[in-house]
Design a protein that fits this description.
alpha/beta, Helicase, Ruva Protein, domain 3, globular
Length: 444
């Protein structure tokens, strides 16, 4: 596109010999030099040097969890002055393309006249890519919208899956069958690449979001906090409390209120095998959120913000340091959720503008949700004193428990009575650690 819009002729540096065998890195450099000589007299020529990570020396990784050395052992570089000369004396404009730059020596990187990082497309562009890739194919608009929401998918992934579905289903494929085949290929590709496929659609068991269903303790009302973030969208927030109390849902509500995307990162997205990989992923997380103007949510943040006083390896300290520095530099909204506030580093706690504790539902909230989901909005469902008493005894119920019970009913395809719904809530309540570990005072 650059060459075409500039009226230039694009030439590609060789990557194979006449017999079709792959060229070594040194031979590819020689091909680049020869191309420079042959094309230097042409005013309309531009060179493309693709997959350059294959020709740069690679670092040799060391073990991450065991035998921590505190760094990465770098392989010796042969012909460094020769490479520098190639980078500095090119008569023909050359575009170098690579999937990774981290292992390329900084002495090489600083010699490039221009650097451009191509990130994942924003939602609007991703929507256009999806619709273009699926044009004329038997897929529903709902499925297409679901693909747009999957942040890890690229147009190439979707085109490959669509091609597989076309080959496997034939010309007269039904929408359901075509989408099933696409989903199969996307799942297999994600597994092979070690990526999270993501949910194709919103969770059908999720409850409608309502601030009134949150039981929180905070120095400031939630509505005031959301309004303040709409005026000045820069803050760090810590949401802590038991699972299912609505921490992630509030983060999504804040992002929606601000008209921004919610970028979610979990430990599985960030932890690396080698020294320095996790720190790079943490830094990249903040860069991605900054570039997209997204609200950044780090789920289960205690995996990265553990108290450094208990650290036993160097990388445990460096990960916390990197995250704290990222929080300082990030000029957006950063939200951490955790079930274990007591494990967080003291320096991290000081950096949070707001700390909000999420608690189990109050009696009024439990009753309201029960009427909504067990009684279809009919308050007469609570007319039984015995049912009210049993529901009132479930002190550790959360919004997530109601969502789980509603999901069970949907999967089973049943319509429970109020008593049956209550029994399922009691079963969810019994398995909670707070309930199982509770021991009454007195003699048996």
């Amino acid at each position: 596109m650059l060459a075409q819009s500039s009226g230039l002729d694009l030439y590609v540096v060789e990557y194979q010999d006449r017999d079709g065998n792959a060229l070594s890195g040194r031979d590819r450099y020689r091909s680049l030099q020869i191309a420079q000589v042959f094309l230097r007299s042409s005013a309309n020529a531009v060179l493309l040097f693709d997959e350059v990570e294959d020709v740069f020396p690679r670092p040799q990784p060391v073990a991450y969890r065991e035998g921590d050395t505190g760094g990465v052992v770098t392989a010796s570089v042969n012909g460094k002055a020769w490479v520098n000369q190639v980078l500095e004396s090119n008569a023909v404009p050359t575009v170098w393309i690579t999937n990774q730059v981290d292992h390329i020596d900084p002495a090489y990187r600083r010699r490039f006249a221009y650097h451009l990082e191509l990130r994942s497309p924003p939602p609007q562009a991703r929507e256009r890519l999806v619709h273009t890739a699926l044009s004329g194919l038997p897929v529903s608009d709902t499925y297409a919208r679901g693909l747009v929401e999957r942040k890890t998918l690229t147009a190439a992934h979707i085109q490959t899956a669509a091609r597989f579905a076309q080959l496997a289903s034939g010309a007269d494929a039904l929408v359901v069958e075509f989408e099933r085949l696409m989903e199969r290929q996307l799942a297999n590709a994600a597994a092979a690449l070690g990526q999270d496929l993501g949910a194709p659609d919103a969770d059908p068991s999720a409850l409608a979001y309502d601030l009134q269903l949150l039981h929180v303790q905070s120095r400031f009302p939630l509505t005031q906090m959301v309004q303040a973030l709409q005026v000045r969208p820069r803050a760090s927030l810590c949401f802590y409390g038991p699972p299912g109390t609505g921490k992630s849902a509030l983060a999504q509500h804040i992002a929606t209120s601000l008209g921004r995307r919610l970028l979610v990162r979990r430990a599985s997205d960030l932890l690396g095998k080698y020294v320095g990989e996790t720190e790079q992923a943490l830094a990249g997380m903040f860069r991605e959120a900054q570039a997209q103007g997204a609200v950044l949510l780090m789920d289960e943040a205690d995996s990265f913000l553990q108290d450094r006083r208990g650290a036993q390896r160097n990388f445990e300290v460096s990960e916390v340091n990197e995250l704290l520095q990222g929080m300082e530099r990030f000029s957006g909204i950063f939200i951490c959720t955790t079930n274990l506030l007591e494990r967080l580093d003291a320096a991290a706690l000081r950096r949070f503008s707001f700390k909000v504790e999420f608690l189990p539902l109050t009696a009024a909230q439990r009753n309201a949700l029960f009427v909504q989901h067990a009684g279809a909005g009919d308050a007469q469902v609570l007319s039984s004193p015995e049912l009210v008493r049993r529901l009132g005894a479930l002190l550790q119920l959360t919004v997530g428990d109601f969502a789980a019970v509603s999901a069970q009913a949907q999967v089973l395809g049943v319509q429970w009575t109020a008593l049956e719904y209550l029994e399922q809530l009691e079963a969810e309540h019994r398995v909670k650690p707070e309930v199982r570990e509770h021991r009454p005072v007195g003699f048996f």
